[in-house]
Amino acid sequence: MPSWSSTHLYGCKKIEDEAKKLGYAVKVEKQGANGYEDKLTLEDISNANILIIAADVAIGEQERFVDIPILKVAVSEPLHDVEGVFQKATQIMRPLSNQQIPTKEFKKEKKEKGWFKLYFKACAVSLKNAVLTGISYAVPVIVAGTAIQALITIIAQIAGVDYIKKHANWLNTLSDVAGKSLSILLAPVLADYIVHMQWQINQV
After folding, report:
1. What is the distance between the terminal CA atoms of the chain, rounded to a whole angstrom?
2. Where would one find the signal peptide in this protein (predicted)?
């Protein structure tokens, strides 16, 4: 749940109470402006039959849940019809033959093939998102350099041969400074935003 308002907290309580009534182990992760509360671990995710997302906006780090069935509902739905939510959940939940319910005392992550696969996929998606975000911020640099070079070409064509001869050095210098400098800046700008996005992901 991506907020900690009273409505969301009541919804969390309804989900927890209904799960306990039906005999299910449940862990509720809350997301808000202050970060995560009770964040789901890889052990929690690998041993979960289903993930219920009660949110009206996109949640953070959804790439963690690549291998688990997901039921998305509005924030208000657990408040008004929590039984209906669980009826939908039971229809799509996955069976787990070697399920281990994590406890608060369980502190050592289980190193197995399924855990590594889940971790690798989550890291791959996080890296992809960071790269794409970096590229999106680097695009204006590319456009600026190309636009300046195109503008110089247009000016030269309009002004004619005599103007080009008279101001050739100035035009070439501006073209080199604008085009080449922005091209040189492209790599560090791209790298900076990729590192920044990856750092933000690791902080949550």
Report:
1. 15
2. none
Query: What confidence score (pLDDT) does residue 29 get?
Result: 84
- The C-alpha angle with vertex 37 and arms to 119 and 93, in degrees rounded to 5, equals 55
* Token pair listed for 110: 């289980």
Residues 25-53: pLDDT tens digits? Answer: 888 888 776 677 888 888 888 888 888 88
Domains of the chain, residue spans: 6-92, 114-202
> What six digits make up the tokens of 53?
């997302």
Buried b vs exposed e over 32-59: b needs ≥16 C-beta within 10 Å?
eeeeeeeebbbbbbbbbbbbbbbbeeeb
Residue 133's contacts (CB-CB under 8 Å, 6 or more residues apart) are 193, 194, 197
Q: Please tell me the predicted confidence (pLDDT) of residue 90.
A: 87
> Is 134:190 a contact under the CB 8 Å cutoff?
yes
Q: Does residue 72 surpass a pLDDT of 60?
A: yes
Spatial separation of the C-alpha atoms in residues 178 and 155, rounded to whole Å: 15
Q: Which CATH entry fits the domain spanning 6-92: 3.30.70.1350, 3.20.20.70, 3.40.309.10, 3.40.50.2300?
A: 3.40.50.2300
SS3 assignment, position 122: helix
Higher pLDDT, 15 or 200: 15
Q: With 0-12 CB in 10 A as exposed, 13-18 as middle and 19+ as buried, what is 97?
A: exposed
